[in-house]
Amino acid sequence: MDDPDLLRLADQCVKCGLCLPHCPTFRLRRAEGDSPRGRIALIQGLTTGQLSDNPRLAAHLDGCLVCRACEMACPSLVQFGTLMDAARAARVARLPAPRRWWRRLRLDLLSARWVLPLLTLLGPAYRRLGGAALARATGLLRRPRLKVMHRLVLRLHGSRRSSSVGPDRCAAGARPVALFRGCLARALEPEVAAAAQLVFARLGVVTTSPAGQVCCGAMHRHNGFPAEADALLAQNRAVFGDAAIVGTASACVAELRPALQATEICRALLDQPWPASLRLQALPGTVAVHEPCSHRNQLRDANAVYELLARIPGLTILPLPGNDTCCGAAGTYLLDQPATALRLAADKVAALARLRPRWLVTTNTGCAAHLAAAAGEAGLDVEVVHPVVLLARSINEGFGAT
Length: 402
Ligand code: SF4
Ligand code: SF4
Hints:
Elements: H1 3-10, H2 24-29, H3 36-48, H4 55-62, H5 69-73, H6 80-93, H7 97-111, H8 115-128, H9 131-137, H10 144-158, E1 177-180, H11 183-188, H12 190-202, E2 207-208, H13 218-222, H14 226-240, E3 244-247, H15 250-260, E4 263-264, H16 265-271, E5 285-289, H17 293-298, H18 303-309, E6 315-319, H19 333-336, H20 338-355, E7 359-361, H21 365-377, E8 383-385, H22 387-395
Parallel strand pairs: 1-2, 1-3, 3-4, 5-6, 5-7, 7-8
The structure holds iron/sulfur cluster (2 copies).
């Protein structure tokens, strides 16, 4: 997007301020520069050359979660997410080449298929060789970035392995669906793909998981590398062709959907006819639903999770209070802005402590990792799972047993 287009988008803001109470960073800091309206004004100043890209301005713009809660509240329909992505791309393009290269390398590594699986091997070593105990004892965890990384590594250690799906028979002639796995989900939530296969199989739908699929590109797009994000989309388009794509991570689906017509898995399952013979076993207990920003504000279909869970007998389904506020995971945000990410997660943990559910479901991998780590550290006895995993357990009691 060139500067005139970016300005046209920014100029749609009439500065009414109705979005301000909905913005998590404004609520935390009470500073205009940390509000949607303030950030739009900063982008306008930057684009017209009235402001220079100094550290104070960068802190305000980089502090944005791109959660799009402001979009939901805006009467002028300002496309804040698109605007912020374009502003970040313009700023990245002006960086000196070595800094740009370093940022790009970091994103490439985070989204590379081999990096997270490698970390899952290092995670147990971190615990066994005393790294975790040392980090606690030396006070290193008082530093937010180290604390976030420590939590994530422990989460990698605790990830469950993929469960066996079993030889389910599928209805002949049903159109297969192609599962988009997502780079984070492969490493952090391998059981989700197995659950998806099991549930689709019981609905008579064949699933495929095309080889060669790559990262959806969301991390690159939200961090100022749109060309690289488009290249990843093109690779996925070549891999999936005209298959019906179903994604298990809402952020990936939100990135893929405009170009590849991907469907979020809860909605995809609800759209299928369910055989009358399908019996679901009761799962007695309370489940709290966390609504990822990508599901709530981008796909705008978080209701699909509640509808799907309502098919499981015995469940008491409650929204996690504060669902209109981001949990702080927000793609790479928890690595880049760890203090704010931890602060936002603490609010979610407080809500969980009041509700005391047996399960917390979320459709986004980053949120799941962030919330599971925060809840675990707070000593809460809550299992953080994808809703499709609960559904799979209700269909097949042995699913996911460890
Ligand atoms: S995207 Fe989220 S954090 Fe950023 S300005 Fe909008 S509401 Fe605030
Ligand atoms: S609600 Fe929309 S128009 Fe009003 S200040 Fe916020 S972004 Fe601008």
